[in-house]
Amino acid sequence: MSFACVRGPGHPDRVCDLVAASIVEEYLRRDPTSRANIRVCGGHEVLFVAGEVSSTADFDVSAVARRVLGANGVSSQVEPFVAIEPMGSSWTQALGTRSAEAVTGYACLETPERVPKSVAIARDVARAIERVRTLDAEWFWLGADYEVTVDDQGKVPLVIVRAEQVEAKKLNEVREALTKLVRECVSDAEIRINPAGEETQSGFAKRMGSSGRAPSAVEYGSGLPSNASGAGLHVVHPLNAGAWLARSIARRLVHEGHGRAILLQLTWLPLETRPFFIHARNERGQNVSDKIDQALTDLTKLPSEWLAPQLLTNVLRYPFDAATALPWESE
């Protein structure tokens, strides 16, 4: 693993993910049996929400969307266009997935967090940016649309930060301030800040985004097979809880000493609660699938704390928000 990328809450794709996940959360809070498939896209002060839902809940979807936009750096008035229809009965059964879904989970001993060094650095830098952006008035010029990319293939890590800035802040000042902040996270690194120049044409008001386009919300690094995003889907969908299970099991296999790094692949068939395919291998290429208790992969037997609706947005915020907790990351 050598490459990782973390996007801030104001990145247009991340904004759309957060809107989609927040709408599903609201359905689940009001009706825990809800099943949903919500997709969000837009930009340039226009937002489209479409999807299918099976739920007894009834609320103002556009109000939820506007609240999420405002909380994540989109200050302009956006009137969402909403088109949500009843879900077909065939998709409301069991898991609520009508097609095969595959996820991967990865864990390693490279860092205490059991993620590759590049991922740990990208998270540390993104969390530092989020901290000063939201808590320090002197950083008023820093927007919510930022991206931290880390490549550690060289002798020292390469850290690239693209961060939204107000026009009143000079580029050299932006680079100086962010370079100092990155140095506090990783002292020995090559650092590039806004390499394309001023980033004043950024954010959801000036760029386009779409939910489900980013790799796995947990963002363990793009050097691995990427999970499709579960943003906009209910908790027990394989692309959500299934991906969390894969990460949790990979962590457990590393903890039990079955390898210094574990890559786990799980595949679910339509409307089945246990994966049809389970394969885990360590860094030496050894198959350690027989070390997995298959009962742990059943989506109908998830720990109760994994069913909390807020986990849908927590997994999206986790890479850049140190205050966010995920139960499987502390097991």
Task: Give a description of the structure.
Helix 1 crosses helix 2. The protein contains six helices and eleven strands. Helix 4 links the parallel strand 7 and strand 8. The two termini are 23 Å apart. The relative contact order is 0.19. The chain is flat. It is α+β, with helices and mostly antiparallel strands and 331 residues long. Among the domains are: 94 residues, GMP Synthetase, Chain A, domain 3; 80 residues, GMP Synthetase, Chain A, domain 3, CATH 3.30.300.10. The model has no long low-confidence stretch (mean pLDDT 91). Helices cover 27% and strands 23% of the residues. The longest helix has 19 residues. The strands form three sheets. The chain has a four-stranded mixed β-sheet with strand order 1-6-7-8, with helices on one face. Strands 4-3-2-9 form a four-stranded mixed β-sheet, covered by helices on one side.
Comma- or semicolon-separated keywords:
GMP Synthetase, Chain A, domain 3, four-stranded mixed beta sheet, alpha+beta, 11 strands, flat
Topology:
Blueprint: E1 3-7, H1 12-30, E2 35-43, E3 46-54, H2 61-71, E4 81-86, E5 101-108, H3 117-135, E6 142-151, E7 158-165, H4 171-185, E8 190-193, E9 208-210, H5 238-255, E10 261-268, E11 277-282, H6 311-317
Parallel strand pairs: 3-4, 7-8
Antiparallel strand pairs: 1-6, 2-3, 2-9, 5-10, 6-7, 10-11
Helix pairs in contact: 1-2, 3-4
